[in-house]
Design brief:
3 domains; 250 residues; Arc Repressor Mutant, subunit A; two-stranded antiparallel ribbon; 5 strands
C-alpha cells in the first residue's frame, strides 16, 4: 500500500492547449500585447479574473444526475476516500446538493447496507460520516490485519510512529506538519498494525487525535511511555516540534 495520498499529489489543471477556456484567456492576453505591452494596453483585471473563474468552473462542473448511481453513487465515491468523518455540509458542498438531500441519501445508504448485510456500514462520529467495517466481520478483518503485521515497517512509518509516540495525543494534520509530508497512508498502516489508535478528538476542529497502544509498548519491550528514551538526539525537543507544527499550519 502506498504511504502517500495520490489524490493530494496531483493537480486537475489541464495545459492551456488542452483546455479551450484557458486557451481563450491566454489568447486575450496575447491580443492585448502580453507581458511586454504598454500598461494602457493590458487587459482589464476584471476580464482576466472572469476568464480564470470560467476555467475553474469548467474543470469541476458536473450534473449529479449524469452519474450512473446518481447522488447516492457520488456520495459513496466521496465517502470511500475520506480518512476522517466528513460533515453533511462538506458533502453537500462537494456534491452541490442541499444538506437535506444529503441527509436523506445517507439515511438510505445506511438502511441499504444493513438490509443487504454488507460488510461495511455508515456511522456518524464526531459530527461527521464515515464508512466502517461491520463488527460482525471483525474475525475476518483481524485475521487479515494480523497477517499483514509480519512485514517490516518502512522508514516513513517509523518516523511517523516516533512523532505520535512522543507528542500524543496528536492529530494527523499536526503529524504532517512536523514531518513535512502527507501521512494519511502511513497513519492507516499504523492503525492497521495496531500500533496506534484514535484516543479522542480536537475540540475546535473535531479532528481525531492519535496515540500509541499497549501493543506498541509490548513490541518495544516497555512498561509505559515513561520508559521511552529522551527525544534528543533522535527528534527535536518538544518546544521545537511545536514551532515546526505551527509553521506548517501557516
Amino acid at each position: 500500500m502506498s504511504e502517500q495520498d495520490p489524490v493530494s499529489e496531483h493537480s486537475d489543471a489541464l495545459p492551456a492547449a488542452e483546455n479551450p477556456q484557458a486557451s481563450s484567456v491566454f489568447s486575450r492576453l496575447r491580443e492585448n500585447g502580453g507581458e511586454n505591452a504598454d500598461s494602457s494596453e493590458q487587459p482589464d483585471e476584471a476580464d482576466v479574473e472572469e476568464g480564470v473563474a470560467e476555467v475553474a468552473e469548467a474543470q469541476v462542473a458536473f450534473d449529479i444526475n449524469d452519474f450512473p448511481g446518481g447522488a447516492k453513487g457520488a456520495l459513496e465515491a466521496v465517502l470511500m476516500v475520506v480518512d476522517e468523518p466528513i460533515t453533511e455540509i462538506a458533502l453537500a458542498t462537494a456534491l452541490e446538493l442541499p444538506v437535506d438531500d444529503i441527509s436523506a441519501a445517507l439515511a438510505e445508504l445506511e438502511d441499504e447496507y444493513t438490509s443487504q448485510h454488507r460488510g461495511f456500514t455508515l456511522r456518524q462520529v464526531g459530527g461527521g460520516w464515515r464508512v466502517y467495517s461491520r463488527s460482525e466481520y471483525a474475525p475476518v478483518v483481524e485475521k487479515f490485519l494480523l497477517e499483514g503485521q509480519q512485514a517490516k515497517l518502512t522508514q516513513a512509518s517509523l518516523e511517523t510512529l516516533a512523532v505520535i509516540a512522543y507528542r500524543q495525543p496528536i492529530s494527523r494534520s499536526r503529524v504532517s506538519a512536523v514531518r513535512g509530508v502527507n501521512v494519511d497512508g502511513v497513519v492507516r498502516t499504523l492503525l492497521n498494525r495496531g500500533l496506534i489508535e484514535e484516543i479522542g478528538s480536537e475540540h475546535e476542529s473535531g479532528a481525531f487525535l492519535y496515540g500509541t497502544t499497549t501493543y506498541f509498548l509490548e513490541r518495544l519491550g516497555l512498561s509505559s511511555l515513561d520508559d521511552l528514551p529522551a527525544l534528543a538526539p533522535y527528534l527535536p525537543e518538544v518546544d521545537v516540534l511545536d514551532e515546526i507544527a505551527e509553521a506548517g499550519r501557516g
